[in-house]
Each structure stands twice: as structure tokens, then as C-alpha cells.
Input
Amino acid sequence: MADLRFDSQPPRFTDVPRPRRAEGQWAFGYREPLNKNEESKKNDDPLNVRDRILYVYSKRGFDSIDPADLRGRFRWMGLYTQRKPGIDGGKTGALEEEELDDRYFMMRVRSDGKLLSPEAVRTLGTIGQDFARDTADVTDRENIQYHWIEIENVPEIWERLEAVGLHSIEACGDSPRPFLGSPVAGVAADEIIDGTSALREIEERFLGNKDFSNFPRKFKTAVTGHPSHDVAPEINDVAFVGTVHPEHGPGFDLWVGGGLSTNPMLTEKLGVWIPIDEVADAWAGVAGIFRDYGYRRLRSRARLKFLVADWGGEKFREVLEKEYLGKELVSNPSPASPVGHRDHIGVHPQKDGNFYVGVAPVVGRISGTLLVSLAEVMEQFGIEGARFTPYQKIVLIGARPEIVDALLDRLDEIGLPGRPSNWRQNTMACTGIEFCKLAIVDTKDRSRDLIAELERRLPQLDAPITINVNGCPNACARTQVADIGLKGQLVMHEGQQVEGFQVHLGGATGLDANFGRKLRAHKVTSAGLGDYVTSVVTNYLVDRKEQESFAD
Ligand code: SF4
Output
């Protein structure tokens, strides 16, 4: 197996012509930082901040924190300062980051597709209760996100997490961000291949590894062997997607260069087949290309998708094979197409005769207390474990056939239904103005109210319709790939600027992956959101032809 560590085997960088204009690409010798983020990373490896948090800042308090750590390197430990309460969305762009900073932190704990025991779920819950004012959101990258964290408590939180195999390392920052793994890996009856061992190898070899701690920007990974492609592989930087090669059998397609935000792009399929024990090497090769050839001059062009768009898939594959893997990859004549719905809500068969059960919190908003209740339910019914999903949902693994009905009833009672309405099942929302410094509008509470309103006005729906709600022009809740994507902004209403949304309609991932159309005229106030969505959905239901989906 090739050793892909940068310090032991630097790539040759021979086959790609030096660009005319400096983009700060390390591969061409541009090592001088071209912006303040690059400078901060060069001054000190961001992973070094862990020791300062443990041994200095947590002892001396918030005011002792070096600003370069606070607004830069803390992210590599999954810590961001949260938004100071009471600043309205109209001031977001006008204020400096320091003016928006609270003295409390958001902490993101990565699950990386792991199967969480009842003990791990209880630990996540009690941390929320003890240190985070009972907050705990499930995010669309399978994380638990806490708020109101104080720096003094971080060491104890980390200790409790580590005791159950969890942590927050590189949950943010220009790093290998939380990995998406199939929530039903190793258990679903219709699985093509179980990617668990590959994901664990990537984590063990490359997470917290200084060869991969300074990317040009964030680097998002997804691995799934489920036929539904349940990890949104179209919009990750690198994705390994289960497929069956006609000669070699089950393995993974390699897709690169997806991402949303402003300039959304879908992944480029490289047309190769990777066996499971070579996935980690291929990951390191793609990550190495991003680290070495990725654009570092402008943050707005620093994602892998821009490099892939400029190079094209063929050249990317060639560089990967020649400079990073030292061998040709197997071509794949049968690229994987997704089959079925991806969110795993409801009751589904496992390989072993048991069932897995997907449940739907409201837009990922749960609490420490609810996680503790969930742990109790898991123990009471002998549930093997839980996984978080990329749709802000939770899947319980290992329900025996004879307990499924009673389990569903009990989950309903604690507020985690396995038979939710369309609106609850298919709505996601980002953090929004409650805690996010970039937000312009409220998202979580607004979405909860919207779901309740739609459940009342449109209770019966025979085709799923997805709604993704974002608090600003970024796309943390994937605005562009929802049937109805809502992007927070201020809109004019009766001569006043008020909270509202720019609407995107008809986006999708999966078989018909595409970005929703931004309809310039479609801007809606937060207060008018219920009426607007009701009217759009009613028009679709009246006008649709047979089998025509909302995106069509
Ligand atoms: Fe914050 Fe904007 Fe992301 Fe929402 S979409 S979490 S408001 S940056």
C-alpha cells in the first residue's frame, strides 16, 4: 500500500503546468500566505490549540484566549463563538466579528457514522444538560451541536466524550470535516457493501493528522454502500458510493468536487471502482490533491469544486493515479444510480431479521433531556445502537420484530415519531440567528411553526416535498437541493425591511440531482411563509400530471 503521508513522500508535481496567475497553490511553490486565514495556519498548526485549551484557556478563562486562536484555530477543535443575543439580522453584515461574538461557544461533536450505544447517547444528553443549557441539535452532517458552552468546561466535556469514543476534533475549520457514513451501514437488508471499515480507517489514519490539517478550506467526506445514496454524495468534496463492478464485484465509485454555498456544483464521477481496502488510500490521494493544488488566494475559490471544475474529471483522475497513488485505478463501466428514498424514516428490514427505525425530531432540534430519554428507551427495548442522519434525523438499529409496535408508541410519547407527517419528515433548517454570527433570519423556530401550520392546512400529501430553510446566503441546510429552498435575507414589505427568504424551487439530489431555480420575484416575508408554501404546494397538486414530482 502506498504511503501517502506528505512528509515522507512528497508528490512529484511534474505533469501539471504552472498556472499563469498565482492562486497560492503549494504544488507550484506558492507557500507565502495570501490572506489572514492562510497566515494563521502557517504561524501555528491549528491542532496545537488543543493543548492551550486544556492547560491554559480553560484554567484562566475566556479573556485569556489569544484572538488568533479564538476566531481561527478553535474551529479545529469544533468550537466557534456563538452570536451575542439580541443583535438583529439587519446588523449582521455591518458589524465586525468581535462585535457579534458572545463569550459562549457552539461545540460540534462529530459522530462520523458511528453506531452509538445507549451509553453514548446518554453521555451526549447529560453533556447537554450539564454544560449547554440543555441544547443539543442533530445537524445535517451527523453531528450533535451544543450551545452555551463555557471554556472552563471544555476539558470535562472532552473527557466524557472520549470515554464513549466521541470527540470534536476537526469538526470545523479547513480540515477533514465530519464524515458522513450511511446511517444503516452493515445492517440494511438491501445494502450493496458496508463501508464501515473504510470510514474507520480514514478516521484512524488521517483525523488529527498534521499532514491533513491545513487544507485551503473545508473538506467534506461521504461514504455509503446503501443503494439510496443516503449521504448526499452529490454535494460532498469526496464521496465513495457503493456499486457493483461486473468483474470485480461490490466496491465504491469515487466522486469529487461537490459543494453548495454561492457557486453550487455537483460532484464529478471519476468513473473508477475502488475496493474497500483501498478507499482510505484513495481518500488520502484526493485530500492530498486538495491540499497541494487547491486554490489558497481567495477563500471564495478555495473549495475543491473549483479545482475540479477547472481540471475536469479526466485530468483529476490522471493526477490522482500518477502523483498520489502510483498506479492506475480500475475503470467502472457501471456507475451507481440511486434507488429509493434516503432518509430511512419509518420501519425497515435488516439483514438479520430485525428492523431499523428512523425517527424525526423537528428540524434536528432535540435537547439533552430528550437524548437521555432516548437512551432509556433504547435500553428498555434492547436497541443495539443509534445513528444520526444527513437529514437531521435519528435511526435506531436492531429492533426485534415483536417489539416494533411498542417501540414506535414509546418513541411517539417522547417526541420522536417514526411515522411523522411529510412536513416533519422532509423539512430541515440550519442554526439561524439564534446562535450563528452570519445569520440574517431565524430558522429553527420559524420552521417549527411552518411545519405545524402545514400539518394543519395540508395534512394529506401523496408525494414527498422537501423544504430546506437557511438563515443566510450560505447553504448549511442545502437550500439549492430542496423542492422548496429558502435562503434567509431581508426583504421589503410595506416600505420596511423585514426578515424573509429568497425562494429556490425544484432542486433535488439523487437520480434527478439538480439545483433549484432561484426565482427573483419569489421573495417572501417570514410572516407570510405559511401562506406562500401552501399556495405553491396547492398549485402543484392541482396542476401536476400523473407521476410528476414537485421538482419536475
Ligand atoms: Fe449560519 Fe448561514 Fe449556515 Fe445558517 S446557512 S448556519 S445562518 S452560515
Notes: The longest strand covers residues 101-110. The first helix runs from residue 36 to 43. Confidence is low (pLDDT under 50) at residues 1-11.
